[in-house]
UniProtKB/TrEMBL annotation:
Protein's UniProt keywords contain Lipoprotein: no
Matching Pfam families: CO_deh_flav_C, FAD_binding_5
Transmembrane parts of this sequence: none
SMART domains: CO_deh_flav_C
Domain FAD-binding PCMH-type intervals: 1-176
Taxonomic placement: Bacteria, Pseudomonadati, Pseudomonadota, Alphaproteobacteria, Rhodobacterales
Protein keywords: FAD, Flavoprotein, Oxidoreductase
Source organism, top-level taxon: Bacteria
Name the record gives this protein: Xanthine dehydrogenase family protein subunit M
Gene3D superfamilies: 3.30.465.10, CO dehydrogenase flavoprotein, C-terminal domain, Uridine Diphospho-n-acetylenolpyruvylglucosamine Reductase, domain 2
PROSITE patterns with a match to the protein in the record: FAD_PCMH
Coiled coil ranges: none
Amino acid sequence: MKPAAFDYERPNDLAAALELLSCEEDTRILAGGQSLVPMMNARLARPKRLVDINRLPDLDYIRDEGTHVAIGALARHRDVKSSRLVRDHLPVIPAAYEWVAHAAVRNRGTLCGNLCHADPASEMPALMLLLGAEMVLTQASGTRIVAASDFFLGLYETAAGPGEMLTEVRIPKPARDTGWGFEEVGMRKADFAWATCAATMRLDGGRIAAPAAAVAGVGDRATRLAELEAAIEGQAPSDSLFADVAREVAVSLDPPSSVGVDAQYRRDLVGTLLPRALAAAARRAEEAKQ
Ligand SMILES: Cc1cc2nc3c(=O)[nH]c(=O)nc-3n(C[C@H](O)[C@H](O)[C@H](O)COP(=O)(O)OP(=O)(O)OC[C@H]3O[C@@H](n4cnc5c(N)ncnc54)[C@H](O)[C@@H]3O)c2cc1C
């Protein structure tokens, strides 16, 4: 299939790109093209104009900013997955990347493009919620910072406005003794998730501290599980605790049904995967103390 006709711009600097984006006609950013181009080919997206950002300088970086890791708009999945900095401070990210797409897609697709696409079954939005990331949105008139919790609004919908570019994502470095767990089930690795569950926590005197948990693939967007976090904070980690809280999450979900993967199966997956993710986070937090 071929896309509908569109205009194509390839600016060489950020100011020119933002100027093009600020025009009123239906203009979309082209980053890795791994989601946008298939959607255009299927005529699910018909932008009048594409602004290709691949020639913009200084947006392809993964930087240590002390309290956080900063990842620029042109950092490819491949580079984030293999980054030593990311592995050292945010090990749940490369673990999750084992489930994201194929090497060819990861070579071209960008983390920021993935977050702006906001597929409800995508792994990285769930991780940005889990890790408390911030999105740096830039437009011709200035920059604003939006918490991940306010960024993902619904199915393929984010807080980024028409003239805005996600120029950077900032991911806070968790405390060194933070444990993590990541679990997913899909048709195959590299396919979108039927259910994804991720968790982090610390242990303080044998009790759960600063827990975080998020799910994807089971609603119209990735979701952080605030009630579960409140229920386990200060408790001693145990399989029965994790099974109980996961059961409550599972029944509260309203997941989509698709061919061969009905809503009840996705709930059952959460009931199984979430305790595993929580238990893995507790185990790694315990190991980090030794
Ligand atoms: C076969 C295949 C398998 C895949 N499997 C998975 C998977 O398992 N998990 C997963 O998460 N993803 C998967 N993907 C999607 C992949 O991760 C994409 O690379 C990613 O979703 C989009 O990144 P991109 O850079 O290619 O963005 P593009 O396709 O270029 O853009 C996507 C959208 O974001 C907008 N956009 C891009 N960059 C910015 C920016 N900086 N600021 C504002 N808006 C922007 C575009 O205008 C467009 O609307 C798969 C893709 C394919 C083709």
